[in-house]
Amino acid sequence: MRSEIKNPSDTVTYLNLTLWRGIVAGIIFIEFILFISWVDFARLIQTIKSWPGLYGLQILVGTCCTASLLAFLFGSRYTDDQMRPVVDWILILRRPVPFLLLHTALLIGIIILTAVVAEGSEVYKKNFLRYASGWLLLVGSMFVVNTIPFLGKEVWFGVLRGGWDVFVTACIVGFFVCAIMLAYPTWWILNGSTLFGVKVVLRLLVTDLLYQPENAIIGTPNYSVEIVCACGGIEGIGLSLVFLSTYLWLYRHNLLFPRSFLLLPIAISLMWLLNVARIVGLVLIGSNKDSWISPDGFHAQAGWFGFLIIHLGIVVITRYSTFFSVNTEHSMIPLFNMAEVAFLSPALALISLAMLSPLFGDGLDWLYPLRVITVALLLYILRRHYRQVLRYTWSWESVGVGIAVFILWLALEPLVNLSESGESLRNQISQLSTTWLIFWLFFRVVGSSITVPLAEELAFRGFLTRRLIAGDFQSVPSGTYSTLSFLLSSLLFGLVHGRWFAGTLAGMAYALTLYRRRELMDAVLAHAVTNFLLACYILLTGRWSLWS
To answer: Which residue among 121, 278, 315, 502 is least packed, with the fewest CB closer than 10 Å?
Structure first.
């Protein structure tokens, strides 16, 4: 790889830039492993929950994230000539000495403040905002400093073009959005309306209604629920607003305004009705002792199914409705082309069946063999659509990335508390006969090592990374890099997996594997190696929570 440093006096000239990046990655990885080994996260989480200014911290974090996203999307204000001095000053940190000095200083500050936060002393509680803001500033600065050796001038030009006026405006918008979403004291209004709606419906369905409005409890003598905080539907409404705002922005040229803004109150009303129906269904299922549906599974998944149905319905209606759409000839335009269906349907089938499994009880995923068979059939039927991007090739680097992600996944596992679900899975497996145990484990290993990597990589690295670059994703060569598509596709990959942080880092690693040779099979191979090693580790150690 040709070095990007052109000045012979630069320190990086004596190390190759690729070697220096490898050293930086190694330093970050070692420090991260040592850090998570040192911090008592269970105690830290309890301390965080007792923070007197927790909601203020959430608003602060949400404001920064929202502002950064808006500034990134609505930026592009200055020319390269205006930004070049600033970018050159930033990229001085690609040299070893300045990078190590600043990196070490930030690391020491983070360690000191983390120790203070974890201790949860009275001095800290009295100066919460000062310590919390300082900790956030140090962590954010560390993230920026650590990414500089890996990013070129083009990326920093794009980030910095937004200008301070755009960023300040974005901060104001982000603050009000996050403040509204985190206004817990006002949630009683929504919770009260939800409680009333559930009461009206249940009176028509049950004869022995249990209703205690002063305690926000409703149900039957056999099964009742307490409607507090998020149960009122605020999370679903917030997620709906985020989805529709993004949809309206991305398709603003195809929609008619201001009438398309009517979609927002329509979606909010539908989400409220959905939440009422979900709670009613939960009470009915819980009251029926002979029900084959798990109340906990229904409670966890019904909201997601409803959310997807409502918002996919809104997308379809706006595509074909002359009231919302600019183009009045949508009846002649297919909603999806066959290539999109081919790349997305295996992953969608995987996710849909995974969401159905908890309805039949916690622990053992009884539908996993069906999941493997369904995805395998789809991959076989649609195989001709993958010929251009899914060639039969491999590389040792892909194997190495798969091993590294496996190690990272295990290292981050202490951050996830799934011991109860792991114990439930262990108990159900111990009750299986030898034949059924071999049958289930065979499909579990084959599925996680073959069908899952193929389905997920086709969707995230084969489709999404290209779709975020251009509407016609097939016109974008496989492995084409874009900062936005790299970050967003990796984040979405992490959110699909229960361990969102580890999943996001894994998604980044698989994407970088794809970018190296522009071969999608490299990402598939790395993903398969990770999952196969995890399966072997689980079978050897019995840590079933890794499959929870």
So the answer is: 121
